[in-house]
Amino acid sequence: MDASREALVEIDTGEDRLDVETVFQAHYERIARVIARVLRDPSRAEELAVDVFLKWSQNPGAQGENASAWLYRVAVRAGLDELRRESRRSRRESLVRFFRPSPTPEDMRAAQEDQDRVRTVLAVIQSREAELLILRSHGLSYEELAAALNLNPASIGTFLSRAEQTFRKEYIKRYGQQ
Amino acid sequence: MDSNRDEWVEERLAALGPDREWQADVSRGLSRLRERRRLKRNRTQRWGWVAAGAVAASVPLMAFPTTRAFAQRCVSACVGQSNWVHSLLTRNVSSAVPSSALVNGSERRMAPDFVLADASGKPVRLSELRGKVVLLNFWATWCAPCAAEIPWFIEFQKGYEHAGFATLGVSLDEDGWSAVKPYIDAHKIDYRVMLGKDDVAQAYGAHSLPTTFIIDRSGRIAATHVGICGKGEYEAEIRRVVDERE
After folding, report:
1. What is the ipTM of this complex?
2. Taking CB atoms and an 8 Å cut-off, how many pairs form between chains A and B?
3. How far apart are CA B196 and CA B199, in angstroms?
4. Please, where in chain B does CATH 3.40.30.10 lie?
5. pLDDT tens per residue across span A110-132
6. What is the CATH number of domain B105-243?
């Protein structure tokens, strides 16, 4: 991971086309993976990851700063936004189902999956805390988290444990102590 | 610090997908990226021509005082709408106007103090923010480059508030709050915005828009930017000034 970032420093931002594609090759897999952590559908995550690079290429301000940090920030937000849209949609659908016969066994099994519970909790807690938890679980170091989310590196530990407390409380509130 | 970490939460988060074996398809992604970029280029070029036509149509309207304000808005809206024209302009502006870098601590001058009312009518006195790093931005709703910077300022406010940082916007709109308030709502500006007065703009020498100052914790001007500058540049300066000890 570090080798690809070092290579980025060498990239000349003058040549736009070469630039975005080089950055794409260096980061796409990791960026798509961050989004895929959040979403249930990996192919949708790939689509959103392409959007992130498109935004990067159209945003001259983004190209001045640490590309990797910018990409992580935008990617995790894109993933969370999509997750929230999905959970709104499923709430609407469950409202419709209320007037219909009971849910299929498949639906019930899906709803019981722990991954879905984690996603539901991430969708309802504060964005900043959810972003921090997702990127941390993706394996970013404190320094990388600070750069990606514009936080003071000295306070990351505090922010993280606060975010974990929020997560735990919300999870227990919804699903009880496991 | 790590002793506070919650293993139960970490286990749950670690169980999130995708599978270890899963890998995004780089070549499919790359061709998708190329296709999206091609479509976007065609679209922006079309809009560029439409915007250029509208600008040309607005020029004769500038000749008459009654229609001048309307024409100016049309031009600024067209410029603001079209990324193509916009990036062309801002690229020129940023290379043409040398924005000053950070001034050394001992050479900084005091930022002139002022009291201006914010959107809720509450007075804001600059000197009351002593101890915080302040980004002071002179702007107006009709100024296209100002509009490009505003989302960055919102982001800075969010990202550095905890480190003792505040963004202040001073609008120099002649139409007053009737123009500024809807703009604040539409662009979801969550930092404090005041309506400027001529004497304040004069005191800061804010003759063209946008003009932005970064003021250190002792109330001295650490950096001045006339015209739009890069987001990275602002952010690097904010970080350095925030990290300075008084």
Report:
1. 0.75
2. 128
3. 8
4. 105-243
5. 545 788 889 999 999 999 899 99
6. 3.40.30.10
Cβ–Cβ below 8 Å for A136 and B13: yes
Q: How many domains does chain A have?
A: 1
C-alpha distances out from residue A147 to A63, A92, B75, B160, B244, Å: 15, 37, 38, 12, 18
Q: Which of residues 42-101 of A touch B (CB under 8 A)?
A: 42, 45-47, 49-51, 53-54, 57-58, 60-62, 64-65
Nearest CA to CA, how far is A28 from chain B (Å)? Answer: 7
Contact residues on chain A for B21, CB-CB shorter than 8 A:
none
Place of tokens 């007065």: B197
pLDDT, one tens digit per residue, over A29-39 is: 999 999 999 99
Half-sphere exposure of A79 (CA within 13 A, CB side): 33
Burial of B202 (0-12, 13-18, 19+ CB in 10 A): exposed
